[in-house]
Amino acid sequence: MRDPYHDLPAFCNSGRKLFRECQLAWLLGKRGLWKRPPTEPMDQGTYFHLLKLEPEKAADWLAKHPQYTYLNASKKYGHEKGDPKAAFRHCHAMVRAIERQPLAMERLEGEHEVVLTGEFNGIPVRCKVDAVDHTRKWFSDLKSCAELDKEDWVATRDGWRKMHWIEAYEYHWQMAMYRDILRQNYEGFDAAEPAIVACTKQDPPGVAIYRFTHEDKLSEALKDAYATVQQMHEMMQDDDPRPTRCGVCELCRVQTITRCMEV
């Protein structure tokens, strides 16, 4: 069943990020003409997320994704029919690793999966916050990652740069947008401290809390997010939009003609 959150008529952080990556893919997605195909690592993250924050939904999700479960029981390997395969069984170990960490558990206290809407310059925006603590006035997001200190290569205006995965996936933008929407909905969240509770897919898993305490970074990210949402809104209103394409995403690889290059 599709999450009704995704049907809300408002822009979100994941859409903002895709718009920055490839305007064509974003626009066709908004028009229902293209959808980024899910990957096993993405699905593993979804299952881990459900196990920790919405455990009552985890079994149903796994039943709807039989490719990640064993078709038959095996006494030799010690699994039953329908048990999760190794990568998804490991998600249970990741949850246990978090539950052994009091600070991580503290950051995940409060109201879970909070769906909120707001406005950026009158344009509807939405978010789904993993954990909102109304008493401490902070909020947190739960993430799975390969390694706590992993760095990724990212294309920037100044060329390719290697940066920490928190920066590579633009989580400052996500946290800034979430906080601004929270501010519009609740009192006392103007200066709420965002955090990411991260757990690695390693064996054994590693756990860390990333607190977003640099207000200058959050302010710049929010300013940029407001501008990007404005561009997204204008493109949606345009009768003859001219989106740019990145040339490297799943959609562009299918639609781009074979290149002939001299080397």
What structural class do the secondary elements suggest? alpha+beta
The rounded distance between the terminal residues' Cα atoms is 49 Å
Discrete helix count: 10
Content of β-strand: 15-25%
CATH class: Alpha Beta
List unreliable stretches of 5+ residues. Answer: none
Second CATH tier, the architecture: Alpha-Beta Complex
- Could you say how many structural domains there are in total? 1
Shape: globular
CATH topology: Lambda Exonuclease, Chain A
Main sheet: strand order: 1-2-3-6-7
Helix-strand layout with pairing:
Blueprint: H1 13-21, H2 23-30, H3 40-53, H4 55-63, H5 86-99, H6 102-107, E1 111-120, E2 123-133, E3 138-145, E4 151-156, E5 159-164, H7 165-168, H8 171-185, E6 193-200, E7 207-211, H9 215-237, H10 250-255
Parallel strand pairs: 3-6
Antiparallel strand pairs: 1-2, 2-3, 4-5, 6-7
Helix pairs in contact: 1-2, 1-9, 3-4, 3-5, 8-9
Annotation keywords:
single chain, 263 residues, Lambda Exonuclease, Chain A, five-stranded mixed β-sheet, globular
Task: Give an account of the 3D structure.
The chain contains 10 helices and 7 strands. The mean pLDDT is 91. A hairpin with a 2-residue loop joins strand 4 (151-156) and strand 5 (159-164). It has a single domain (4-255), classed as Alpha-Beta Complex (Lambda Exonuclease, Chain A), CATH 3.90.320. It is 41% helix and 21% strand. The protein is an alpha+beta fold and 263 residues long. The strands form 2 sheets. The chain has a 5-stranded mixed beta sheet, sandwiched between helices. The chain has a two-stranded antiparallel sheet with strand order 4-5.
